[in-house]
Amino acid sequence: MAYDADVIVIGAGLAGLTATAELVDAGRRVILVDQEPEQSLGGQAHWSFGGLFFVGSPEQRRMRIKDHRELALQDWMGTAAFDREEDRWPREWAKAYVDFACGEKRAWLHGLGVRFFPVVGWAERGGYDAQGHGNSVPRFHITWGTGPGLLAPFVRRVREGVERGLVQLRFRHRVTGLGRSAGAVDTVTGEVLEPSAAERGKASSREVTGSFEFRAQAVIVTSGGIGGNHDLVRAHWPERLGTPPAKLLSGVPAHVDGLMLGIAERAGARLINRDRMWHYTEGIENWNPIWHKHGIRILPGPSSLWLDARGDRLPVPLFPGFDTLGTLSHIMGTGYDHTWFVLNQRVIGKEFTLSGSEQNPDLTGKSVRGVIERARADVPGPVKAFMDHGADFVVEKDLGALVRGMNALTKEPLIDEAALHRTIAARDRETVNPYTKDLQVMAMRGARKFIGDRLIRTAAPHRLLDPQAGPLIAVRLNILTRKTLGGLETDLSSRVLREDGAPLPGVYAAGEAAGFGGGGVHGYRSLEGTFLGGCLFSGRAAGRAAAKSVD
C-alpha cells in the first residue's frame, strides 16, 4: 500500500520535535502536523524557564551538592506516591527517567550544544520526612537561553530534515481522527485551517478551508495537554483537591486543549490517571498578556509570609516553594480561590523570579551582563513592571494602607489590620534571635546554608515591618493551570497500549500526551524540572522505537 511517509508525528512541541529529530537521524520520512501556524513551532516549551532535573551534575558538584541515584529515586517515589494498578508502567518510566537524569541526559544535551546556568535551584522542597514529597537537594538546572535555548538544537535538526527531503512540515492541519488498515493505525485525517499570521501564543483562526488524509506505517501522538481548556480541567478535577476554582488563570495558550487525547482514546488507546494534574498556586495576572487569561507563576524564595484569603498563615510545611499540590489542596478547602504573599522590597528584590522565557530576558538572551545587572538591581526589571502595573500587587509604606489595598482587590474586606499586624509581629520577633520555633524561619536559615540560595535566592532573615526594608508589598495569588500528569498509557518503547494491555498497533505517544511517559511518570506530584525532560526522554524513545518499526 502506498504511504505518504514512514511516520506521522502529531504535535510540533518539544516532544514532537525530539521524536522527529530521531527519525531524521534514522533516515525515515516524516510528516509533522500541527494545528497552529509555523510561528508557534516549539509549542509550550518556548515559553518555559528551561528548567531541567539532573542528578550528580557538574553544576551540583561545583556547588558541593551531594546527589546520587538512590537519593533521587527515593525522592521521586516518595513524591509520586504511586498507588494504583495502572501505575505499573509509570513506575517503570520513573525508574528509567531517574537513570536517564543520572546518566546520559546531560552529556547528550551538552553534545547538542545546550548549556546551563551555573547556579542550581532548589524547587519543591517538601518539608515532610525523608521518604515523603520533595527534593532532598537542589536539582533544578536552568537552560542557558531558557526554553528557546533548549528548543534550538531540535528545531535545527528538524529543519535539516526538511532540507534533506525527509520532513514535511504541515502547519494549520488539525487532526480529527485516526484510522486503521489491516488492524494497524496508519491513517491520520483532519481539517486544514486557514493561514494565520497570529503571533506565537496568540489565538489563531479556526476557519476550515479543506480536509486532509495522510498515511504512514506509524503515528506518534505528542499533543495532549489540557491546561488551556478550563472546562476539561474542571471536569477532571479530583475530590482530593477540593472544589474546582471559580477563577483560573492559564499558564499555557488556548490551543493546549486536550482534544487529541480524546481522538486517540476513540481509536482504541487507553487513557489513565486523567485526574492527576499540576496547577500552580502562585499565579498572577500578566499585565501584558499574550493569550487569554494569561497568568505568570512566581518562583518564590522561602521568606514571604503566605496567608489565606482571611489573612491566616498557611499551615506547616506550606511555605513558598515547598509543596505545590499540598498547598493547592489546602487552599481549595478554605472556600476561597486566592491567597496572599506579604513581604517587603528587600524580599521581593532578592527572592522573586517570574517563570517563563519572556520574563527572563537576560537568561533567554544569554546575556552575562544582564544576569549581573539583575543581581545588582534592587528589584529586577520584569518584577518591577508587575509592581507598577500588575493587577494583583499592592505596594504601600505602612500596614494600614497595605490592608486597605488588599481589601480593595477582593469582593469583600476579609483582611483585618490588627490581626495581620499581630501575625507579622509574631513572625518578626522570631528573626532577631538565632533560636526559633517558627519552622518557616528555620527554613529560611536552612536555605541560606546552600550557597546558591544565599547568593541569589534568599534574603537574610529580617523584620518584615522594618521601615528600612520597605515598602511593604502584598501579592494576590491565583490558581494557574499548567500540566496534565496523566495521559495515554505507554510501555518503555512509547508504544500506546489498549485497555487489554496490548500495544495499539502503529501508535506511539510522548510528552504531555503520555503523561511524560507511561501515562503518568510523575504520579500525583512533580519534583519540577521534569516536564521538559519528560518531553525529551519520551520523545526520543518514541522516535527511536518508531524508526525501528517501519520497513
Counted up, domains total: 2
How big a fraction of the residues is strand? 15-25%
Shape: globular
- Please bin the fraction of helical residues: 25-40%
The end-to-end distance, rounded to whole angstroms, is 12 Å
Write the CATH fold name of the largest domain: FAD/NAD(P)-binding domain
**Rg over alpha carbons:** 23 Å
- The CATH class label of the largest domain is Alpha Beta
Pfam family, one: FAD_binding_2
Keywords: Flavoprotein, Oxidoreductase
GO molecular function, one term: oxidoreductase activity, acting on the CH-CH group of donors
Organism: Streptomyces spectabilis
List the helices and strands and how they pair.
Elements: E1 5-10, H1 14-25, E2 30-34, E3 51-53, H2 58-62, H3 69-80, H4 88-102, H5 104-111, E4 140-142, H6 146-163, E5 167-171, E6 173-181, E7 184-193, E8 208-221, H7 230-235, E9 249-250, H8 259-266, E10 271-272, E11 277-285, E12 295-299, E13 305-307, H9 324-332, E14 339-344, H10 345-351, E15 353-354, H11 361-364, H12 368-376, H13 381-389, E16 393-396, H14 399-408, H15 417-429, H16 439-447, H17 451-456, E17 472-484, E18 487-488, E19 495-497, E20 503-509, H18 531-549
Parallel strand pairs: 1-2, 1-8, 2-5, 8-20, 9-17
Antiparallel strand pairs: 3-4, 6-7, 7-8, 10-18, 11-12, 11-17, 12-15, 13-14, 14-17, 16-17, 19-20
Helix pairs in contact: 1-6, 1-18, 3-4
Keywords: Flavoprotein, Oxidoreductase
Organism: Streptomyces spectabilis
Protein name: FAD-binding dehydrogenase
